[in-house]
Amino acid sequence: SKTRHFKWEVGYMYASPDCEEKILLGINGQFPGPTVRAKAGDTIHVELKNALHTEGVVIHWHGIRQYGTPWADGTASISQCAINPEETFIYRFQVDKAGTYFYHGHYGMQRAAGLYGSLIVEVADGEEELFHYDGEFNLLLSDWYHQSIYDQMVGLSSKPFRWIGEPQSLLINGRGQYNCSLAAHLMEGSSACKLTSKDCAPVVLRVLPGKTYRLRVASTTSLSSLNLAIGNHKMMVVEADGNYVEPFIVDDMDIYSGESYSVLITTDQNPSSNYWLSVGVRGRKPNTQPALAIVSYQPNSPSKLPESSPPVTPKWNDYNHSKSFSYKILARQGTPKPPSYADRQIALLNTQNKINGYIKWSINNISLALPPTPYLGSMRYRLKNAFDTSKPPENFPSDYDVMKPPKNPSSAQSSNAYVIQFNSTVDVILQNANALADNVSEIHPWHLHGHDFWVLGYGDGRFEEKDDSKFNLENPPLRNTVVIFPYGWTAIRFVADNPGVWAFHCHIEPHLHMGMGVIFAEGVDHVRRIPKEAITCGMTGKMLMNNNLP
Ligand code: C2O
Ligand code: CU
Asked: Any idea where the Plastocyanin-like domain is (predicted)?
């Protein structure tokens, strides 16, 4: 295995991802950031310079577990201090498992400003993939707002609340078209796009007839749940979040923020045509045009537009369609099985609440507020008063009606953390509920740092104790992100075998910003010496200063 070196500078730049010029966060003048490619077992070494004028930055390697390097997880206030302007921080970590991953900013809402890119880990030298393919394409999906993230953040934390609304466009590899369609000539009522910049030219997948291709698809959307389909072509799902799944075939696939998949397609259709790949919105009343890319059979011209209209996304609120896709995802034979029982069960109720009239998301009635000193340093060095040390609740009232808005919507903010016994097995029941408005319950994709977890099951309504008996312990898929459906629950199991402090949160950027997350700390005493550069702020910064006095 190799060490792969990268030298990156994060800065704002002008770009027109959907043909409208804005500023966004790029890396080395690129948007999306450069693709990192490595092989399983390699070490990634990124020298990251913050070239922003007045704000900090960090980068999280989504899906990489950071065994033995919890300070490289790239979460501001959790694993490290934000990197100051003009300063450089070195991320050095191993990628131990082949799969499709991505990286993104994890400070404020910087991800939504465009700070993301792909991270692809191929199988180690001498090993083979479990399936054959002739070529591969990488599709990083996102959504894009014309309003700056500063404007968004102020609105979300104002009274009265100002919601960010639906995104202006959906992007494929950072390219989309605002308020128009590439397929306008095939669809009534939509206007044709003027491609005013090369930044917004459609993505083209050039294929040869009669071959099999792997599409690596990841979603780093701020808000949107997505559905992807390719005209005339079926897809075989083979990987989810860096883990092999039992292959299954679909016409269209859902993908939530924080998830990644690999699908295989066979180019067995009429080769004289090109075909649309279409990405549309799920789970929220769409107000955003689908994003389109072109699958172009060689030697057709890539600019030859497909003759038939793009595949239509299933109805946004057809949750049965979404559930049936999620329920099909099962572990491929040979995937490690979960321990047969858990040492601890934590139930997390997801609700929308109010604190002094400000709208928040809360977990067991606590809205996450990150402390000034990152947990990893303050816990490792046992500093007092660095965060709220009260124990967060393991459960929620047994008479809580998940089908109704909260009876008492007043909530509290806290920085408290779940401290988990090292090497113990934990079940988490994610319980969805009604939000503040009547008859509203949203989709939330939950992402766990530092681990993969087994998805043991899903259900509608309130989780009951007897639901334990229906858990899938035979072939539950391993993932790092899983969705809870409206008014439903999802059960996961993980082994707390990775010393560090790990975020577990809804991957919807405005929801996390409004407090929708919790902190898990495990085996922090086993963490080796934390690089100084990760702890130069807050109380750990003071500690370093005092130790260094002559
Ligand atoms: Cu991809 Cu904590 O996030
Ligand atoms: Cu959410």
From this structure: 10-122, 137-299, 408-523
- For residue 280, tell me if it sits in a domain: yes
pLDDT reported for residue 548: 61
Closest CA to 504 of 358, 400, 392, 380: 392
Identify whether residues 68 and 173 lie together within a single domain. no
When pLDDT is averaged across residues 140-169 and rounded to a whole number, the result is 98
Q: Let me know whether 64 and 151 are in one domain.
A: no
Kindly report the protein residue whose alpha carbon is nearest to atom 1 of ligand 1: 62
- For residue 306, the surrounding DSSP H or E stretch is none
Whether 104 has a pLDDT exceeding 70, the answer reads yes
- Contact predicate 116/104, CB 8 Å: yes
SS (H, E, C) 61-106: EECCCCCCCHHHCCCECCCECCECCCCEEEEEEECCCCEEEEEEEC
Atom index in ligand 1 nearest the CA of residue 258 equals 1
The whole-angstrom separation of Cα 102 and Cα 93 is 14
Q: Distance between CA 292 and CA 202 in Å, rounded?
A: 7
What is the tens place of the pLDDT at every residue in 442-497? 999 999 999 999 999 999 999 999 999 999 999 999 999 999 999 999 999 999 99
Whole-structure pTM value = 0.97
Q: Which domain holds residue 68?
A: 3-122
User: Cα–Cα distance between 253 and 260 in angstroms, integer?
Assistant: 11
CA of 112 to the centre of ligand 1 (A): 12
Element (H, E) at 377: helix 375-380
Ligand nearest to the CA of 284: 2
Distance 221 CA to ligand 1 centre (A): 11
Q: Which residues pair with 137 in a beta bridge?
A: 215
The answer to ipTM > 0.85 is: yes
Task: Provide residues with CB under 6 Å of ligand 1.
Answer: 60, 62, 104, 106, 258, 447, 449, 503, 505, 507
Closest atom, ligand 1, to C-alpha of 102: 1
Residue 113, H or E segment: none
What is the spatial distance between Cα 172 and Cα 215, in angstroms, rounded to a whole number?
13
CA of 107 to the centre of ligand 2 (A): 17
Here the CATH number for the domain that contains residue 489 is: 2.60.40.420
User: Does 199 map to a domain?
Assistant: yes
Q: Is the pLDDT of residue 187 over 90?
A: no
Confidence class for position 190, pLDDT limits 50, 70, 90: confident
Confidence of residue 550 (pLDDT cuts 50, 70, 90): very low
Q: What is the pLDDT of residues 328-351, one digit of tens each?
A: 999 999 999 999 999 999 999 999
How far is it, in rounded angstroms, from Cα 434 to Cα 447?
21
Under the banding of pLDDT at 50, 70 and 90, the label for residue 277 is: very high
Q: Is residue 546 part of a domain?
A: no
User: How many angstroms is it from 510 CA to the middle of ligand 2?
Assistant: 8
Residue 203 lies in a domain: yes
